[in-house]
Write a structure and sequence with these properties.
The protein is α+β, with helices and mostly antiparallel strands and 176 residues long. The protein is 59% helix and 18% strand. The chain has 2 domains: 123 residues, Ribosomal protein L10, N-terminal RNA-binding domain (Alpha-Beta Plaits, 2-Layer Sandwich); 44 residues. Strand 4 and strand 5 form a beta hairpin.
């Protein structure tokens, strides 16, 4: 189906908007995929906080160039996943989808404007999710502070134990 010049410029603007609003973009090559399979993958991507779109390679290449991302030319039938919130979560969805699939293949990705390989996407997929990373970071920050509080409170606590023991010793009657 041929697109008019206006339709092409609208599609190009949409691609550029997706690229600007996403943290990362991952490209899958697919073959013999049914619409039901695409919809299933779209639902998983949506759950990971991203979007999945079938793209026109030439227009996506122009959009990448217009947004300042240097890339090789996309070839074949491509699905692009745009990570709007959590790049590792989307990478995990893509890595899981391509793990035992003969119809899907990870091609490349873009993270912070730089092209990354399929191996890098798989490495990114092995990272823990963002909430887990935040919890670990909070634990690392909190540990020294709690140790400092314990260290500062310990001398006062020891003095209180001595005073309490001395007062209990004086309170007991002595047999003479």
């Amino acid at each position: 189906m041929a697109f008019t010049k206006q339709e092409k410029s609208d599609i190009l603007a949409r691609y550029e908007s997706w690229l600007k609003n996403s943290q990362a973009v991952f490209v899958l090559e697919y073959s013999k995929m049914t619409m039901k399979d695409v919809d299933t993958l779209r639902a998983k991507v949506r759950d990971a906080g991203g979007q999945l779109h079938v793209v026109k390679n030439t227009l996506m290449g122009l959009a990448l160039k217009n947004t300042g991302i240097q890339s090789r030319t996309l070839q074949g039938t491509c699905l692009c996943g745009f990570a709007m919130t959590d790049a590792p979560a989307l990478a995990k969805v893509f890595a899981d989808a391509t793990k035992n699939s003969e119809i899907l293949k990870l091609k490349l990705g873009f993270l912070s404007g730089q092209e990354i390989t399929a191996a890098s996407i798989k490495s990114l997929a092995e990272m823990p999710p963002l909430p887990v990373m935040r919890a670990k970071l909070l634990g690392l920050i909190q540990t020294p502070a709690s140790q400092l509080v314990r260290t500062l409170a310990e001398p006062a606590r020891q003095v209180a134990y001595v005073v309490k023991a001395y007062s209990e010793k004086e309170a007991t009657p002595t047999a003479a």
